[in-house]
UniProtKB/TrEMBL annotation, chains A, B:
GO terms for biological process: proteolysis. Broad specificity carboxypetidase that releases amino acids sequentially from the C-terminus, including neutral, aromatic, polar and basic residues. It comes from the Archaea. This is Metal-dependent carboxypeptidase. Belongs to the peptidase M32 family. Its cofactor is Zn(2+). GO terms for molecular function: metal ion binding; metallocarboxypeptidase activity. Zn(2+) binds at residues 276, 280, 306.
Length: 514, 514
């Protein structure tokens, strides 16, 4: 482990940038505390502590906001921006990321931010209730207010082409409708073509009996810890805990924590949520330690983060190369004995269905496309909130051939809108696209890392090309530098065709002997 | 649960005080975050996270310090102090506690505070090593610098009679040498008289075979959770975890966490550290919820806090009334079957020995007296650090008739000095004194709360008289108001004579039938 202060000295030499980083340190510390508070809230906090916790979080978030508005910081950033050409990539990264944070903080007046916080906090409670009761009308007025707030935010943040761009940019720096429209226009018909062939092909089952089989939670816990060992998890730098919804959070480069959830049935759900979160965590763990305590010492965007989790979950974890290891662990811990081929089919079921979070690799992006279109229309005002359930159901039937019987499995299924997260969903598909780009590079250049399940080799490959940079480059630039191209549907279509159409005929080559 | 904002409105009506509380909220939030960070550090944090954690803590502590020096806060406090007579007790409490914090923050210049932090952080590491190697010389230069820093701090903080007073006051507002000298002058000879009689009396054993007996840690965990249930622990407002050294910490009135440690041998050690921490925690849990987010919504001092832990540990937990419950749990969980009388003798061994943390109720305050005298002399300069080991050993032999064979069981045994905590030790004896005052009040007024092990009644009694007030009154004033007298040796001597000299003859009355 390099000694941070002196090593960082070699990366950040410009006096102005050093002063910016000096100021940033407190913001970093507040982020550290808020991360821990968030982690604790979801894992170990006693229930009644929630009020004190949210009071404290509100104070610290308010302070972070005020620190971003500090005129002295603005002045230093302007000073640095004037000599941008003389700065190195790390220094430029610091200036870019902080300027972006300052710009967003300035654009949204405190009054609107507070209104959004209040409305979304209530809306989340109402959404839970409305989903339980399958009653969209309950949620409608809240969603209307939230959409209105998002539209105002878009105007305040500013955009060139489409108001939705301003929101997309909050989650993925630089992502625009002009990128997503052609991407989905190519991806959606290709996906539907692939899906039709998978469904008639007969190799990938639409259901598997193990999906209904229970398991012993205590044994599953031990198995997941063993799988994390297999993946090379550094227990001195990370934790595995449990929460209602699995997540990854970092308190710094040397303290990254993931959670999973044991439902007691259909063990693949727990396994793949573990591998998914592992992908997120590995990104954080492999950031260059010299970027610690700086605004670029973190994952660069939602899309790039999701590419890492999806790569590990789908390309590595659901690939034939993983079946040997997984079948071994399932046998040892749960007494579940499955031939690798059978296991491969169990973890790769494909079926058009209503719920996004349960969707497979083939259908997943169709769920995102539906949300992308509806969000764009809500923000541009071409669909009203009260038309939403109908629009949702129609589009779902059109895309996937299934129709919700109630809003709970339709328009009310996701928590995101109650949080005000408009523009977030597309980053899931972007993540799938980037994961496929990684697959393509590996498959053409170093296929043995996958076929030989060379986990250390995969970690090093990703660390070198993506992880170590943190947020040094904007996400789309990082992808272009590291993977040699802009995100487009092509790699993802190629990956899906390979895995779901060609691989069944070549599986013997990659599956371990039974 | 009363709604805080409006309820608090009824307590804090003065406009100046309300503005002070508005400013204080961020300080509270920082304290909340720092408490959680401290808890996590000792319980669940991955090892390598320590560097990021201390970096973050340093930033947040620095900010807290700067907030206390805010001239606007000082101005508001002066404004409130000018109309003190028109304020109610809660408002006055807020002004008093914050003024004290501001005064301390102002007195110690940042440069000295930083030097102390640096030296004590190193000294703690060196102390560990020195204790392991039984090498006082290693630790000596650090201790010399620490004593010098404490003497400078005393001068900067100011005092009337004795420089040690300035340090005492840091841990116990208002406590002075002029209180402690007469207290110890009465307590020490009385204790030695009682000790002599106990040792020749033959009832309280000096050792018990169970002290060497191992136990199953997993079963002990379940037993301790059951005992917390018995004590009425509100699991929705608190936690029980494990750490190298047991402690209690609060994140607010509705989130209080205790830890214990399982050594796998001598089960009473785990049991009584649990009951001890429970006493601390109950104090926090029973503070008036309307004091939340204010500087008086916390325990008032180390001494009063310690009185709560000692009361539960010694008066309740080691009393004959507790033996029925404890023997039941020991039998259920550990298969340990003991007659209540035998159990009472096991948990009440008395022996003059070298180590403070293992000391019994009779000898404990002699250990504190030794440290009190030596600290006072170090601070006034009448003993030098290099004379300390000799002075320690001589005094130990004189007080307890035992002499350390190595500095590890003598002058190097406690961590406190390496932390720079001079003036802290006496609060332990003060805690014992106040616990005895509580016993005396109960014993004369409501003995059935003890004899009947009426735990709910005890909680209510303490909550009403002490806990609910938080830091509204200065500690010595709270004691006088609630227990009807100033802390003095009398109650503690009376308690020790009762328990160790008279009770053996009356035990049958209080012990449950076997």
């Amino acid at each position: 482990m390099p000694e941070t202060a002196s090593e960082a000295g070699t990366l950040f030499r410009d006096e102005t940038v050093r002063r910016i980083l000096g100021k940033y340190r407190l913001l970093w510390a507040l982020g550290h505390a808020l991360s821990l508070m968030g982690w604790d809230l979801e894992t170990y906090m006693p229930r009644a502590g929630v009020k004190d916790r949210s009071t404290a979080a509100e104070e610290l978030e308010g302070l972070s906001h005020r620190l971003l508005l500090d005129p002295e910081l603005d002045k230093l950033l302007r000073e640095a921006e004037e000599k941008l050409d003389s700065l190195n990539v790390y220094e430029r990264g610091v200036v870019r990321v902080l300027r972006r944070a300052v710009r967003i903080a300035k654009a949204v007046p405190e009054e609107l931010a507070r209104r959004e916080a209040r409305v979304t906090s209530e809306a989340t409670q109402v959404w839970k209730e409305a989903k339980k009761k399958a009653d969209f009308k309950m949620f409608k007025p809240y969603l209307e207010e939230i959409v209105e707030i998002q539209r105002r935010k878009a105007e305040l943040l500013g955009y060139e082409d489409h108001p939705y761009d301003a929101l997309l940019d909050l989650y993925e720096e630089g992502l625009r409708v002009r990128h997503l429209d052609p991407l989905f226009n190519e991806l959606v018909p290709a996906t539907r073509r692939i899906l039709d062939r998978v469904l008639t092909g007969g190799f990938y089952p639409s259901r598997h009996p193990l999906e209904d089989q229970g398991y012993d939670v205590e044994r599953a816990r031990a198995m997941l810890r063993r799988l994390l060992d297999d993946l090379g998890w550094p227990w001195d730098r990370g934790r595995l805990d449990e929460s209602a919804h699995p997540f990854t959070i970092d308190m710094g480069i040397d303290d990254v924590r993931i959670t999973v959830r044991y439902e007691g049935r259909d063990i693949k759900r727990a396994v793949y949520s573990l591998v998914h979160e592992y992908g997120h965590a590995l990104y954080q763990l492999q950031i260059d330690r010299r970027l610690a305590y700086t605004p670029i010492g973190t994952g660069v965007s939602m899309g790039v983060h999701e590419s890492q989790s999806r790569f590990w979950e789908n390309v590595v974890g659901r690939g034939p190369w993983f079946m040997g290891l997984l079948s071994k662990r399932l046998a040892e811990h749960l007494g579940l004995r499955l031939e690798p081929l059978e296991l491969y089919r169990y973890v790769n079921t494909v079926r058009p269905d209503l719920i996004r979070v349960d969707a497979d690799e083939v259908t997943y992006n169709l769920h995102i496309y539906l949300r992308y279109i509806l969000e764009k229309k809500l923000i541009e005002g071409s669909v009203m909130v009260d038309e939403l359930p109908q629009a949702w159901d129609d589009m779902m039937e059109d895309l996937l051939g299934v129709r919700p019987r109630s809003p709970s499995e339709g328009v009310l299924q996701d928590i995101h809108w109650s949080h005000g997260s408009f523009g977030y969903f597309p980053t899931y598909t972007l993540g799938n696209v980037i994961a496929a780009m990684i697959w393509r590079r590996l498959w053409s250049g170093s296929p043995e890392l996958l076929t030989g399940l060379d986990l250390a080799g995969l970690r090093a490959w990703l660390g070198e090309r993506i992880h170590r940079w943190g947020a040094t480059f904007p996400p789309l630039e990082l992808v272009e530098r590291s993977l040699g191209g802009k995100p487009s549907a092509a790699a993802l279509v190629e990956y899906l065709e390979w895995k779901f159409l060609r691989l069944p005929g070549e599986l013997e080559e990659y599956l371990p002997r039974g």
